[in-house]
Amino acid sequence: NKRNGIDVDKLDYFMRDSICCYGRASVDCRITRLINCMRVINVNGQMQVCFEEKLAQSLGDIFSLRAKLHKYAYQHRVPRVIDLMITDALLAAEPHFKIRAEDGVDRVLTDCADEPNAFIKLGDWIISAIETSSDDNLKPAQDILQRLNSRRLYRLAGQATFLVPTDDTPSEALLDQISAYLPAGIRDEVRRCIAIEFIAITYGSSDSRGAPDDPISHVSFYNPKTNPNEAFRLPPSRQSPLFSPSDFAEKTMLVVVRDDDYMEVVMEAFASWKARYRTILSTPVPNFNSPAAGKRTRSGLSMERVERRPSHRIEDPACL
């Protein structure tokens, strides 16, 4: 349902996922009651599914559950980090791992998207094939997958929530801004170990300008005790101020560090960036324990030692 986002598919997996995540259905909305209170009414020349007005709060709870599931399950920081690690592994393996299509031509993973016979062969088996391959060229990808399997995930240096959820600053620009606060001697090396991830959560509805809004404002209701064939929209004055959020979107930036040795130096750079750009950031309710400043990295390498660590990159221009 593109008009307001209510469909039976959502009702099904919202209940399923909330039970899996929380052990119970986290919304007080019985599907049979919802269906029994539906009615198809002609609204401005369009036949629309309308609901009894007494269900307005229950429908609002469904959209609230959607946002919570995105925040605490679908787009939780751990799944996002795992997604990033799998992406890094596939990118590292991409030039060397090939799929043979029915025409007998070997194609790298990115080329499989343009060849249907090769595309249909893609699957989760690729991860296992990379892990068990004897090709030395796949060693970088295998190292990432080994980290993933042993739960040595990329670490989160911090997160920041934008004051305006529609902020469209690209990740590369944000990475440049944060990198400006890194020590000059290791700036380029550390920058390659930083990834910027965005978590954008809405109630699944937007107005005519594309800005997130209240999905209840797009739902038509009726009153069976007055005129069951007349549909109407609920004005904001008839919605509960206690259960109606003031904003219907949230955009958060995650700063992920691939190398534990650089964790502390990135944390300090990110803290400086947040202090500089605090006017565009909000203060969200924390959903994870921030790493302590000044704490040594997992490898035991302090910030001072990081600054003195020599670079292993080839600096000879003839070799570049």
- Summarize the helix and strand pattern as letters: HHEEHHEEHHHEHHEEEEHH
Helix count equals 11
Terminal residue distance: 54 Å
Reading off the top of the CATH hierarchy, the class of the largest domain is best stated as Mainly Alpha
Kindly give the count of domains. Answer: 3
Strand % is 15-25%
Q: Strand count, sense and closure of the main sheet?
A: 4 strands, mixed
Whole-number mean pLDDT: 85
Number of strands: 9
Overall 3D shape: globular
- What do we call the CATH homologous superfamily of the largest domain? Hypothetical protein af1432
Class from secondary-structure proportions: alpha+beta
Poorly predicted regions: 296-320
CATH topology of the largest domain, which one?
Answer: Hypothetical protein af1432
Summary, kept brief:
The chain is α+β, with helices and mostly antiparallel strands and 320 residues long.
Secondary-structure map:
Blueprint: H1 8-22, H2 31-36, E1 38-43, E2 46-52, H3 56-74, H4 77-93, E3 98-100, E4 106-108, H5 116-119, H6 125-132, H7 139-149, E5 155-161, H8 171-179, H9 187-191, E6 194-202, E7 221-223, E8 227-232, E9 249-257, H10 263-276, H11 303-308
Parallel strand pairs: 2-7
Antiparallel strand pairs: 1-2, 3-4, 5-9, 6-9, 7-8
Q: Can you characterise this structure?
A:
One of its GO terms (molecular function) is dGTPase activity. InterPro entries: dGTPase-like. With about 325 residues, the protein is α+β, with helices and mostly antiparallel strands. It has helices spanning about 10-20, 30-35, 55-75, 75-95, 115-120, 125-130, 140-150, 170-180, 185-190, 265-275, 305-310; strands at about 40-45, 45-50, 100, 105-110, 155-160, 195-200, 220-225, 225-230, 250-255. The strands form three sheets. Strands 1-2-7-8 form a four-stranded mixed beta sheet. A hairpin with a 3-residue loop joins strand 7 and strand 8. The radius of gyration is 25 Å and the shape is globular.
